[in-house]
Amino acid sequence: MRLDPIDKYLLIPVNRFISNSTTSGILLFASAIIALILANSPLKDAYHHFWEQTFTIGFSDFTVSKSLHHWINDGLMSVFFFVVGLELKREIMGGELSKPKDAILPIFAALGGMIIPALLYWLLNTTGEASYGWGIPMATDIAFALGILYLLGDRVPISLKVFLTALAIVDDLGAVMVIAFFYTSDISTISLLVGGAFFAVLLLANILGIRSTVFYGIVGIGGLWMAFLLSGIHATIAGVIAALTIPANVKIEDKSFVKKMNDLTNEFENTTPNNVSLITSDQLHILDKIRRYSKAAMTPLQRLEHGMHPLVGYVVMPIFALANAGITFSGSFSDNLSSNISLGVILGLVLGKFIGIVGFSKILIKLKLAVLPEGVNWRQIYGAAMLAGIGFTMSLFITDLAFEDSDYILQAKIGIFVASLLCGIGGYLTLRKAQRIIRIKGLH
């Protein structure tokens, strides 16, 4: 195949960069650093003012006005939660959560990694508005955690990556449920009923075999998401619910697809070429059939998930970090760091995640209800548990839902930054050392 210069020197390198599992985590980290720098520079007032600009959508008497910061957290992050919902459905149907024997360890490890951090935070913050932050240390930032894991390359077994991925997806589901049940405002029954009606339309479309992603987008965003936005339940929940209605079946089975492709490629090979750069009408007709059969051989769910990962990793998450990670350090840093809120977040993410994940895993394996993933030892589980303490994105998100007091928000975000840094470094070094020990033992 002949490569044009633009393909060779631009498109292929860019696609290779985007498909790299570590680059989205690096971009997310860079966005957070930029936000921190701007928020503590002479441009800090302009930075904060920019995110507080009000935007209105709607028509006539039906309008919704929110700040840019809220549109990002309520709207753009719905795209992130939509992809989480797609991943969850795929994992349940045919992934690591589809077989009870394989799913039990990451599910219960994730539960331990949510319960213990929340409890540790609450022990330090039992009353008042500060107590609302118990959900902050429950979350795992899947992009950062997996980004660091993939930086280690072949130093860690694939089965450990699968374990942490499954754990993080269950963790995300737990965070979604916590947001839905505990971080909502007053519920509008009418809006909720309207949202239920749109959800029923999406389910009916799935049953009837409608596979158009455009249809699901229009009904999901224009109907379900808008109804949830007005209902009092956080609008991002609509993203997860809409994802669960996306069809996950193919229109043509793999054996039939292979036969069709063989027939069509033979037919294409036997066409008479026109010896110019343009293809013939017969060739165009055959290629169109190949395209349609290829689309029919993919599930809409997997096609959407694959197509939206770059959007989430390279647009949604960096913008979210730019809007939410920019905290202006006011007052004494040491005082904010030593506050009960900050300490609760740090203890929850650093200590609580580790105790919860490792403790629940050991109990299950001791009771012979589960086994360690193939090729994985306990030291590697320790490293993965530390990485799960990187709560960056989801923890920042829940912070803005939990608190109204700016001092509490500042203290929580300082705790998130410190804890995520400690967990990232600790997890990376632990996994590197674990692999070094394995290699030394192998030599002996």
Query: What number of structural domains do the residues give?
Result: 2
Average residue-wise pLDDT: 84
Helix content: over 70%
Number of extended strands: 2
Tell me the distance between the termini. Answer: 48 Å
Report the major sheet.
Answer: 2 strands, antiparallel
Number of helices: 18
CATH superfamily name of the largest domain?
Answer: Na+/H+ antiporter like domain
The proportion of strand residues reads: under 5%
Description:
α5 packs across α7 (158-182) and α17 (392-402) runs antiparallel to α18 (406-443). The chain has helices at residues 5-19, 23-39, 44-51, 68-94, 100-124, 142-151, 158-182, 189-208, 213-231, 236-243, 254-269, 281-296, 300-324, 333-337, 340-366, 378-387, 392-402, 406-443, and strands spanning 54-59, 62-67. The longest helix has 38 residues, at 406-443. It has a two-stranded antiparallel ribbon with strand order 1-2. The protein has 18 helices and two strands. By secondary structure, it is mainly α. It is globular. It has two domains: 75-184 and 234-249 and 300-443, Na+/H+ antiporter like domain (Na+/H+ antiporter like fold, Up-down Bundle), CATH 1.20.1530; 254-295.
